[in-house]
Each structure stands twice: as C-alpha cells, then as structure tokens.
From TrEMBL, chains A, B:
Annotated organism of origin: Sphingomonas carotinifaciens
A GO biological process held by the record: tRNA nucleoside ribose methylation
Coiled-coil residue spans: none
Residue ranges constituting the tRNA/rRNA methyltransferase SpoU type domain according to the UniProt record: 14-161
Lineage of origin: Bacteria, Pseudomonadati, Pseudomonadota, Alphaproteobacteria, Sphingomonadales
Pfam families: SpoU_methylase
Entry's Gene Ontology molecular function annotations: RNA binding; RNA methyltransferase activity
Family listed: Belongs to the class IV-like SAM-binding methyltransferase superfamily. RNA methyltransferase TrmH family.
Keyword tags: Methyltransferase, S-adenosyl-L-methionine, Transferase
A single Gene Ontology CC term: cytosol
InterPro entries tied to this protein: Alpha/beta_knot_MTases (IPR029028), RNA_MeTrfase_TrmJ/LasT (IPR004384), SpoU_MeTrfase (IPR001537), tRNA_m1G_MTases_N (IPR029026)
Protein name (database record): tRNA/rRNA methyltransferase
SUPFAM superfamilies: alpha/beta knot
Length: 246, 246
C-alpha cells in the first residue's frame, strides 16, 4: 500500500550502543528507551556477547526492545540504512561538526526525512574518534560543568525523552528536500575515493593516514548528500579513474 | 547588600524525597541532581534512617548533595519555607490540581518568585494522597502509556534536566564550526574539477553540459565547506590529476 503525504511520518530513531560493556546497562538502556516509545536498539560488538543474561532483569519488563535488538560488527554496518547519524559525547572534541542539544536533535530527527541513528559509547570511555567520525552531528547534553556524571541509561533517557515530546507534534516535512542518502551509500563513495587516492600515493606519510581519512570522511559527511547526488559523485570519480590518454 | 532586579534570580528548587526506601536510590538521585546543578535535597522519614552507607557509593561523587541533605519528619515540615510545591506522580489521580509536564514546571520555577520544592514518592508506591495534597501542582512525565517504568533517579533527572535548561549553565554548547569559504575559493575548486572532467570526456552529450555543470555546482555548494576543507579537496583533485603509472 502506498502512503499518501498525510500518512508519511519520520520513523523513530535507532539507538546504537557501541561496544557496550555490562549487560545490566544494556537492559537499563532498553527500559529508558521503551519509557519514551523507542523500540529499535542496535548493538555494535557488545563486550560480553549477545544475548546477555544480565540484560533482562535490568530491563524491568522492556523485553520487547532486547528481543528485537540486532548485533553488528561495526558502527558503519549498524547505521548503513540511516540517513542521519548523531554521536552523543560529553566532552567537546576537536572535531568540526555541529554540536546540538538533545532538544535540537529531536527536532531535526522529527523533521526528517529518513531514519536517524544515535550512537552511545561504551560506559567507561565513551565513543572513540573514529566512531564520532561516522556521525554528521554531535549531541551533547548541557551538563553541570563541575559535575558531569551521566551514565549510559541516563544519556539514553534524556535523548528518548526529548524525542518523545515531538511525537504528537510530528508533521510531515514541509520542504521537498530529497532525503539524505543512507550511510551505506556514502560509505561506498568514500571507499571508492580512498581506493583511488591510495592508488596515486595520496596517503603519506603512513602515520598521518588515519587522521587524513577522518578529515576526508568528515568533510564528505557534512553535506548530507542525497542518493542521487552520491550517484553523481560516484560517476565523477569513476570517470576520473578511467585510463587516460585516449 | 540589597540585590537589584537584574541580580535577583529565583533559587534552584529543593528536591524532596518522601519516605525513600533504599540508600542506593537516594545516592542515585543525588547524582542525577548534581548533573544538572541542583544541590539541595531533603529527606522525609527515610525508611532506613540517615545517613545511609549505601547512598555514598551510588552517588558517584555527588557527595556534596548527600552531605547537605536534611531530614524532616513530615512533608509539611520539609516544604515549610517553599512558595510553590510540586508533586511528581506517574498516574493521574482523582485530585483537582493542575497537572503540568516537567518542561512547564521548570518554566514556572524559574519565573518564581520564591523557592520551589518538588516531591518524589517512595520507590515502590509513589506519593500518597496526603502527600499530593500538600502540593499546589502535579508534575507528570508524559510517558509511553503501554510501558511506564521510571525509577526514582530517572524521574529526578528529567525534572532536573528541564530546570537546568533555563539556567546559565545550560547554555547550548558552542559549536566550533569554521566559517564557510568565500565563494571565489569554491569557484576555484569547481573550475579545477570541471577542467579535469573536460579532459576525460565527462561532459557529454554537449547539450546536457550546462545542466550537468549546474548539478555539480549545486551539490558542491550544498556543504558550505570551509577554506581548509576546500584546500583539502583541491589537494585531492590535484593528486588525482597527476600523471599515473609511476
């Protein structure tokens, strides 16, 4: 059945727990999510495997979230079908990405179009720089600068709570902006470019390669290109990669 | 010293835990409070007395809140110096009092004048009717009607979070986005790319050239890249344009 414009709403965001450590905290995050109507949890490389017997009791009845949780090997895999990826961080980092509050992020997620993913890091250390690089936008909870001690479930509940406020208000997007391409399509383009650059010796010296790749990823993630735009750029790259001299 | 109008701010609200059961939950509530700048906790008839050795470890460093916590025999005693008393409840009750969200309550608390108190009930049962009767207003967190499972610390953190939004400490984090490159720099990059693409026969058929160039310009203008990002991309293009086969 085809939906008409009135029926079209932005899907709820996916909560991605990146390398979570304790099953108990996964359960608490599930409980926090379901309180505010979020159902879809994805787990990237959970430390103690999955399923985890400690998760259920901590979920206090939010079993439906745990039962449907899916496991991925990498952040890129977990967000491949998502158009907009947010990384939650506590500290400011030296990254040139927009930083928004949970409130602003919730508004953006409702505005859509396309599905969003929200990344939460491991309990102790938070997200690594490479995880953050996948995201277009950073969510930072404005917190007491002298005492910032949010645990995983608390960070999840604040973001879920802000999202839930907009559910009743959610309107179909007014503008006809094309949806942002799923992250997997962008990754494909970035991979193609990196391969070309490797072939011509761009990545040098070797110890700078990860930083250079992050820089490229960041600036190519920034635009929020549509699928059509990504296809156009891949065509450009393919043309540039063709043998020359003809 | 008398404060003038500009200096006069409404004091932060007092968090009143009514007959709390577990010391651990008192500690978690303290942690939730301090994250969002609330310092004053009052305890009404804590079940296991006070101080409670289980509270400290659960507070994760929010000791200042626990050390200053004061114990009262009744709700009435605990809120005697407060101008506005809120009772947090999950369910609607048969009481004829205004029911507001944490967001609305936070706005009222900031508007003042006078100090506010927010009552939170025991973990299992919530506030009794007699406790609610002391309050002028009820705070209810809008929650998933099919799964309402907020624990004490979570209820506290949502209310504290909403309050903190109205305070100076709750400024949205500054974004460190670099300025967008002047159009001339972008044009330089677009010109470089077009020249490369002309060299490899990308623009074909001829009657499509203007539309294709517009498409490329549109998608390269969309990001709002900084000067540094434009320079990086020009470096990428220069590398790709170098003679190959070496």
């Amino acid at each position: 059945m085809e939906l008409n414009v009135q029926d079209r709403t932005t899907p709820p965001p996916v909560v991605v727990l990146v390398r979570p450590q304790l099953g108990e905290n996964i359960g608490k995050a599930a409980r926090a999510m379901l309180n505010f109507g979020l159902l879809e949890m994805r787990l990237v490389a959970p430390r103690d495997g999955w399923p985890n017997p400690a998760a259920g009791p901590a979920a206090s009845g939010a079993d439906v979230v745990l039962e449907q949780a899916r496991v991925y090997e990498s952040v890129a895999d977990a967000v491949a079908d998502c158009s907009q990826v947010y990384a939650t961080t506590v500290r400011k980092r030296g990254v040139t990405k927009p930083v928004v509050t949970p409130e602003v992020a919730a508004g953006e997620i409702h505005a859509g179009p396309g599905r969003s993913a929200i990344l939460f890091g491991p309990e102790r250390s938070g997200l690594e720089t490479d995880d953050v690089a996948v995201a277009r936008t950073i969510i930072t909870v404005p917190i007491n600068p002298e005492f910032g001690s949010l645990n995983l479930a608390q960070a999840v509940i604040l973001v879920a709570y802000e999202w839930s406020k907009g559910v009743a208000l959610a309107q179909p997007p007014e503008t006809e902006l094309p949806p942002v391409a799923p992250q997997g399509e962008l990754d494909g383009m970035i991979g193609q470019l990196e391969e070309m650059l490797e072939g011509v010796g761009y990545f040098f010296p070797p110890d700078r390669v990860p930083a250079t790749k992050r820089t490229l990823r960041t600036l190519l993630t920034k635009p929020g290109w549509s699928s059509q735009e990504v296809r156009t750029l891949r065509g450009v790259l393919s043309t540039l990669a063709r043998p020359r001299g003809r």
